[in-house]
Design goal:
Distance between the termini: 50 Å
Radius of gyration: 25 Å
Shape: flat
Helix content: 25-40%
CATH superfamily of the largest domain: Vaccinia Virus protein VP39
CATH topology of the largest domain: Rossmann fold
Number of helices: 11
Strand content: 25-35%
Strand order of the largest sheet: 8-22-23-21-20-17-18-19
CATH architecture of the largest domain: 3-Layer(aba) Sandwich
């Protein structure tokens, strides 16, 4: 019996197709009249009817409206707010897909990106890293709106494909104690004098469960607001912070709690103090496994000299220092560098670490030579860039003769990882030894991955490559 998923007052064009595969956003992929069709909510081996919501020359996007047969990968979503209907929460995209199948899809997305974008493939595929599928998200940003038509204050994530706030009362990917705060937070905000000027609440939970709530207040608290906030924090075990302007303005109402949150890496006996507005990995269990794998893949010795690019607060730097002779952490933010130094001192690693503030998106051979000289040579390198990747660093590594023995690249964007691996391999002769995914964000389309590269013979420039360089074509000749 067919199941209906979505009702629209003004039905769009509808078509029936058989789903062949999934794309990286968890949409079912089919073909109709020579065009690729991407269907939200559909899974492989299912026959579905979809309504077309976007029509282009070579593809179209649709939304599942009727499921004629259920595929083997479909599971019942755990969260009551997940779905395709208007008003459903947009925080997850794949709760209807078996969690292990999600990881297989992400592995395929990574390998496809490496081949189609970078014209490269790893010599060995790393086994996927798994963590908890539920209750894993230790960082979140709730949007807050006072919506009279919906009964008052809403606190939660945005609706699917919308700027509206979902009317949600729980969240299966948040720790249970945070999920249980959603309704009390709605009640709390409704009593504040600044409820119309409080657009978001940021949540951060540390490795021991300590929780901070950052209230973004666009105007000063009114009479009685602070007392209500503190009473809420005492009742629900949360440190209360206020943020009047940018992230750097965030501060706890009780100043003694400024360094109360800590990221713990027990294998390396490291604690990294962080603020709730700092970037830290959202999945603590997966982060510990990820750091452990990166350190192991670098094959450190007690004499190793390591550089950690995009080091942040030292999530990799400090564990690396436990296993090597010396580590330099490079980061674009002066503030983060200062706090990373303090973290190294607190962990007894100040004598084995150094931290330098530098714009890594304009990295040059002169910068590399200076660090090489400062370290007396570099034999290991770790890259953990943001979504933009590490193009400038990789171009230097491809060109220089001063090459480390091993590079581990931690990526949150398969496309930029593929681009950077192509630079290293095709321009610098590096070998892509291993690559694999990490399930940092279950039930979403985010793909986190790790790659290992080692130096190989540099390619001999061809006339074709020289011609392309002169013409301004920066792509490697092999990928052009």
């Amino acid at each position: 019996m067919a199941r209906s998923f979505h009702k629209n007052k003004k039905p769009r064009d509808r078509f029936t197709v058989e789903i062949e595969s999934l794309d990286q956003d968890g949409r079912g992929v089919a073909h109709r009249e020579g065009k690729a069709v991407f269907v939200e909510g559909a899974l492989p081996h299912e026959v579905v009817t979809y309504e077309r919501i976007r029509n282009k020359t070579s593809f179209e996007i649709g939304r599942l409206v009727e499921l004629h047969n259920e595929g083997p990968l479909r599971v019942k979503p755990r969260c009551p707010h997940f779905g395709l209907e208007p008003g459903c929460c947009g925080g997850c995209a794949m709760q209807h897909l078996d969690p292990f199948a999600q990881v297989a899809i992400k592995q395929r997305v990574l390998l496809d990106a490496l081949w189609h974008i970078g014209k490269t493939k790893p010599e060995n595929i790393l086994p996927p890293i798994y963590g908890p599928f539920w209750g894993y998200r230790h960082r979140a940003r709730f949007t807050v709106r006072d919506v009279t038509k919906k009964g008052g204050v809403l606190v939660g994530f945005h609706e699917r494909s919308s700027s509206y706030v979902a009317d949600m009362h729980s969240c299966a990917i948040l720790p249970k104690h945070v999920s249980d705060m959603i309704d009390p937070l709605r009640e709390l905000v409704s009593t504040l004098t600044i409820r119309q000027r409080l657009p978001q609440i940021e949540v951060a939970v540390d490795g021991h469960g300590r929780t901070a709530l950052v209230f973004r207040n666009l105007e000063p608290l009114g009479e009685g607001d602070e007392e209500k906030l503190l009473a809420f924090g005492d009742q629900y075990g949360a440190d209360i912070w206020l943020q009047a302007k940018g992230p750097d303005s965030a501060a706890p109402i009780r100043p003694e709690l400024e360094n109360a949150l800590g990221l713990y890496l027990s294998e390396f006996d490291v604690r990294i103090a962080f603020k709730p507005t700092d970037f830290t990995q959202v999945n603590h269990a997966l982060n510990e496994t990820m750091v452990s794998r990166a350190v192991r893949l670098l094959r450190l010795t007690p004499e190793s000299r390591v550089v950690d690019f995009f080091c942040g607060l030292g999530n990799f730097t400090l564990p690396l220092a436990r296993r090597s002779a010396r580590v330099i952490g490079l980061e674009g933010s002066e503030g983060l560098v200062s706090r990373a130094k303090a973290g190294a001192a607190e962990n007894g690693l100040a004598d084995k670490t150094d931290f330098v503030a530098r714009n890594l998106f304009t990295w040059s051979e002169q910068d590399w030579d200076a660090i090489w000289k400062k370290m007396g040579g570099i034999d290991r390198l770790l890259l953990d860039p943001p979504r933009e990747g590490a193009q400038a660093v990789c171009q230097v590594l491809a060109a220089t003769d001063k090459r480390p023995e091993r590079v581990v690249y931690v990526s949150c964007n398969p496309a930029t990882l593929a681009r950077d691996c192509a630079i290293l391999q095709h321009q610098g002769g590096w070998r892509l030894l291993e690559a694999g995914v990490m399930n940092m964000f279950p039930h979403t389309g985010h793909v986190e991955s790790m790659a290992v590269l080692v130096p190989g013979p540099k390619p001999i420039p061809s006339e074709k490559a020289e011609d392309k360089a002169e013409s301004g074509d920066s792509r490697p000749a092999e990928a052009a």
